[in-house]
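Reading is simple: each integer encodes one residue's backbone shape. The lines below illustrate:
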Amino acid sequence: MQSQTQVTTISIKSKSSFLEGIFVSLVILGIIAVITSTAVLTHKFGNVLVFQISGAVYALAAALYIVHTMLKNEKIGKLASLVTFTAWVIQSAGLFIRGIESYQLGIFHPPWSNLYESLMFFPWLAVAVYMFIEKEFKTKVIGTFVIPVIAFLIIWGHKFNTEISPLVPALRSYWLYIHVLASFLGYAGFTVAFGAAFAYLIKENENAKTSTLHIIGFLISLAALIPLGYLVLNGAKDLKTMFLGVIFLTVLMIFIYFATYTLKFVAKYLPSKNLLSDVTLKAVAISFPIWTAAIILGGAWANEAWGSYWSWDPKENWALIVWLFFAAYIHGRTIGKWQGKTAAWIVVAGFIMLLICYFGVNLYFPGLHSYATE
């Protein structure tokens, strides 16, 4: 009798969850439809303005996540999630509007053909992965490390050319839909994994001693990152800027190291190390096979377009390096050789490689993928 009651309860809950999911999906589609149709029919605002609005809303969400982490206020945490979801829906509408506008210009293509479009699409995927992780593990603290990055990318992305341009010949293929989409899913998942790994390292140092050296190193590296970042992102595409880029990434690693000690005061607000480790592993476990598929699909596309599966193009090389880092992480976690702090630092290093693959190659390494900056 008790077993039958349990089965009935589970059945009711499953049906309720299913209906709730349908309702939420319909609400999302309705909001996107309203924003998109209003923009297209009135011509009062376009995709760029919608993306800018989403960036501002993400910035608000980032501030709310930080306040939630510091105050452990459940209401602020719920509000942070709601604002993030709102920004994501607005951003979704922006992607739809850009697709419709490209169709109206007679040059329809998915919104990930150049650096600006990718900086709108990749954060959208990252937020989707993050919201899934947040719901799955019932923790909002990782949003403190992920959402500020999302807000920065969307706001900063508007420094690039926002015009809708025709696709270059190399991109006029069905492979654009599957290879590039898989790549961005990988980028998104690895970004969430980095946020969880960084939080883990802070939690790991909760009881460690913070020395004067840690504080000085944190302040100096932070002060150096700002001008270096500006010079790298706004400099000419020459050897000097590439050298500055190497310095920037080195200083970034140093900053992360000192930050794990200097910011340990937030450790008491973070979830357990086991939970953060599990979130990191799950994010990588989701992303790694997708990244592997992206490399394989890219090889098939390259063979069709250029007659070779692998050309040792800079993008291909760095995609392989990223794959090796996260393969090492999964291998180490599986056999139990690299656990805890070591595993987290491998994820952080892998994320640095991901930044080079995404930004460095596109901006500074000439190759078969150089069209991505157009």
Notes: The chain has a mean pLDDT of 83.
